[in-house]
Amino acid sequence: MFKHEKQLFHPVAIERPNPQYAALLQEQLGGANGELKAAMQYMSQSFRIKNAEIKDLFLDIAAEELGHMEMIAQTINLLNGHDVEASKVSAGEIQTHVLTGLSPGLINASGYSWTGDYVSVTGDLCADLLSNIASEQRAKVVYEYLYRQIDDKKVKETIDFLLNREEAHNSMFREAFNKVQDTGSNKDFGTTKAAKMYFSMSEPSVSEEFQKINTQAPSFK
Question: Alpha carbon of 135 to those of 37, 41, 193: distances in Å?
Fold first, then answer.
């Protein structure tokens, strides 16, 4: 069961409207590494988890991601301004004026619709945890890119908060993985000599090149 509390997970504000940046921020609302994707992925994965503690972790983080989605949507809403007038914005923002009336849509920064194909669920806890660790890392990278492209201090405060929460989730998933890393696919497979062998397919190898350079380098002794 879920309930909606009428307050944002963290306050959001802007210094001035910026429809161009609103389009960029759409990536974290309806993109492949955005907040909706994260919420749906962790919630979907939780349905089959038997470990009660980790199941709660997945659902708690999923619920928080929905709160982050609300924050992003409200920020986009503020950045889009108040008047539907496509002539004042660049081509990248036209669809928000003719299709959604400036409402934040479930689309990415290129205007493509959100899809369940973004969500990864395997039924194997180790595999899903590793996928989530990677998802949080990718989301963090996108937020870092977004942070560098805005000079609005209030928007940057929001992104900075979300960046830090991505890092927190990353850490939580890593701790959970450490607890179960000897289970599931990690236990069933990868125990033979073949699992620990490294095949060098680069000729010459980096080590050989390094040895060659050291051999040919002049001595200063």
Answer: 9, 10, 30
pLDDT tens, residue by residue, 43-80? 999 999 999 999 999 999 999 999 999 999 999 999 98
Give the count of beta carbons closer than 10 Å to the beta carbon of residue 14.
21
Instruction: Say if residue 203's pLDDT is above 80.
Output: no
Token duo for residue 188: 């069933």
- CA atoms within a 13 Å half-sphere pointing along the CA-CB vector of 114: 21
From residue 11, alpha-carbon distances to 8, 61, 82 in Å are 6, 19, 20
16 neighbors 152 (Cβ within 8 angstroms): yes
35-to-25, 38, 160, 167, 198 alpha-carbon distances in Å: 11, 5, 15, 14, 37
Tell me what the mean pLDDT of segment 91-97 comes to: 62
CB burial readout 93-118, b (16+ within 10 A) else e: beebbeeeebebbbbbbebeebeeeb
- pLDDT above 60: residue 180: yes
Q: What are phi and psi of 107, to 5 degrees?
A: -135, 165
Q: Are 17 and 79 in contact (CB under 8 A)?
A: yes
Dump the DSSP string for 109-171: TTSPBP-GGG----S-HHHHHHHHHHHHHHHHHHHHHHHTT---HHHHHHHHHHHHHHHHHHH
pLDDT single digits (tens) 121-172: 999 999 999 999 999 999 999 999 999 999 999 999 999 999 999 999 999 9
Alpha-carbon distance of 130 to 201, in angstroms, equals 27
